[in-house]
Amino acid sequence: MERRAHRRVPAKIQGVLLGNSHEVEGRTLDLSLGGAKFESDLNVFPGKVIVVRLVIPGLPAPVSIPEARVRWVGDRTFGVQFQNVEPDELDELEQLIDEYDDAGRSGHA
Fold this sequence. Notes:
Layout: E1 14-19, E2 22-31, E3 35-40, E4 49-54, E5 63-73, E6 77-83, H1 87-106
Antiparallel strand pairs: 1-2, 1-4, 2-3, 3-6, 4-5, 5-6
């Protein structure tokens, strides 16, 4: 079994996914610094690169990930691996993951 390189939390974050010149809403079902599981109607296939913009409450602008490579596809769900994420965006993701992780450990998720 493959071991994940990053801590993953069950975070439901609204986002906008761009692929095939289409902009489609979606939401994460789980999230890590290295990628996410999305629920969306966006038509994707393994290997496809999409743009992800996560709308995080309290931030003035979405966290933008210009390269997210689709790793697997299920029924209205798919997993992406984040690539070439800017340091500022990584900091925002890490802070968000820490908040979900802390809430999960205290039972207030």
